[in-house]
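Structure tokens please, single chain.
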Amino acid sequence: MAAAGIPHRLLISERNDPAHFSGKRLRDWSYRKSEKLVLQTEDMKRCFSKDIQKKAVVIPNPVSDDMPEPYTGERKKRIVAVGRLQPQKNHKLLLEAFADFQKICHDYELHIFGVGELETMLIQRAEELHIADNVVFRGFSASVKEEIWDSAMFVLSSDYEGISNSMIEALAMGIPVISTDCPAGGSRMYIKNNENGILVPVGDKKALAEAMMKLARNPEFAKQLSVNAVKVKEQYALVKIADRFLEEAGINRVK
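Here you go.
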């Protein structure tokens, strides 16, 4: 509505799973008014009617140019998660999977970066699971990339996502990544299972714990995931994704 009557072309970008959007009627009305609708995955595109799909183009998220170089030493026995403490991210599942994992791998810690409405509940759940001594709630950090750089693994336990930028950054830094294969397909776009990361079913505590165990018990496998993961920096380089936006807008980039 803000763009009505303004002589500019309107581009709209959807950044989360459209299936979990409230107010879909008003959303779809506004999307029909755009010249282009940018979506992150093909699964997101299929959420819309045929007339909206005609306006839609799939452009994935880029990898930032300022990523730290991959860590090459012995990794800390630290599992990390980065994301808002909200139901979508399902940190409760992560805590419960870590509790099972920690029964065997006692010397690992879980560090959770992020703030949100569920913090008190999650702290309480860690206490109930008797893992509070091995779980650290780190809150917000402006230097999170540097703080997770040498971690043993990164875990995304979300029920749904568009594309998780923190997951992309973890891959680009060479941190072995485990992610739920959550809708709308963003993790699957970046991760080839058991090649550059591990995908597990949404909500599956056992599979998540087993994936963590697999990385902890197989350092050579974890190292190979790391080597393959950093290739996303080239595949999804910022300039390549920016060129996709310019191409869809009919603009030639000045080189």
